[in-house]
């Protein structure tokens, strides 16, 4: 939903409700509550319903979208994210639709292998649709972030707990939300075109979608480095440090897909890997990150108890690299950087369920603070790359302020994940 499809904004029961042209409103009354339902059809012909029951807004999405393409052949399902002009970013329609397709894969005994990829020639997926998130949060009130992140994290959780073989093609840009739904895949394939990153600290967010879990489990101090700097790495880097399982030239992926789809017994993981290895190769250019690895290990080490200690270590390195890292980190949202540091530190001892519960708390509170909207303005809208963060420096961000992001939400407002998500009906 963008500004054109939202139409006029009306205040209903103390909440903002979008009422676009040609929407249908149905109001029913009983002795206890009034229910207002607004049906919205956006430019992709996806139908959304917003129900206001007794002043409480309930979001529903009915999947009718061509933004996810699926082809089932033999015992394999091939799912393509299909927003190539938008670099296949993930919107709420995709969260809902893809989660349904993943669940169908889990429960369909005739399907034994899933391949996830992106349409077009630029990106697998550039992350979540932050334009949708900012626009609807401003226009439809702060109930929208709850809807957005609840559906995104449940999609990610489903993908992480498939218990069936899955393959992702990280060909081209692979960032943020696109990694959350694929980083737990059985086989993670990179190419010479891969640009892999968790860049959220640049826009006043944090490396979420399970980042607390998978960043904290990377070798040594790599999670701190990627989370605090938001820097991108190559396919060769991903292979070198175990983020990816295989490296294959981009031009060979269609042939690999055809051979995998043709498997008679595609639930045999050894057979799947044997076929992948037929196409795998060694990167022509060694991992650039490997050249900096000793510096990263020393100056982003897990032993440091604060971001300030990391910066002090970098400043004392006497290297241009150290100076550049300090400057880079200080350009990011100070609050986001401190959130990222803590989430990687505590995430190492958490289960995936605990991580998503924690990240949901952080995400909701990030959308209540100004840095996210300022970051989107500076990086995405105006593109001046001169955000005015608040607080403006790392030194001004206190531990008490960061504690608030991690603290439990009010009763009844925590993330509904997995089975609880379906029991409550929030998935509809």
Automatic annotation (TrEMBL):
<dbReference type="GO" id="GO:0006574">
    <property type="term" value="P:L-valine catabolic process"/>
</dbReference>
<feature type="region of interest" description="Disordered">
    <location>
        <begin position="11"/>
        <end position="40"/>
    </location>
</feature>
<dbReference type="Pfam" id="PF16113">
    <property type="entry name" value="ECH_2"/>
</dbReference>
<dbReference type="GO" id="GO:0003860">
    <property type="term" value="F:3-hydroxyisobutyryl-CoA hydrolase activity"/>
</dbReference>
<keyword id="KW-0496">Mitochondrion</keyword>
<keyword id="KW-0378">Hydrolase</keyword>
<feature type="domain" description="Enoyl-CoA hydratase/isomerase">
    <location>
        <begin position="77"/>
        <end position="406"/>
    </location>
</feature>
<dbReference type="GO" id="GO:0005739">
    <property type="term" value="C:mitochondrion"/>
</dbReference>
<feature type="compositionally biased region" description="Low complexity">
    <location>
        <begin position="26"/>
        <end position="40"/>
    </location>
</feature>
<dbReference type="InterPro" id="IPR029045">
    <property type="entry name" value="ClpP/crotonase-like_dom_sf"/>
</dbReference>
<dbReference type="InterPro" id="IPR032259">
    <property type="entry name" value="HIBYL-CoA-H"/>
</dbReference>
<dbReference type="InterPro" id="IPR045004">
    <property type="entry name" value="ECH_dom"/>
</dbReference>
<protein>
    <recommendedName>
        <fullName>3-hydroxyisobutyryl-CoA hydrolase</fullName>
        <ecNumber>3.1.2.4</ecNumber>
    </recommendedName>
</protein>
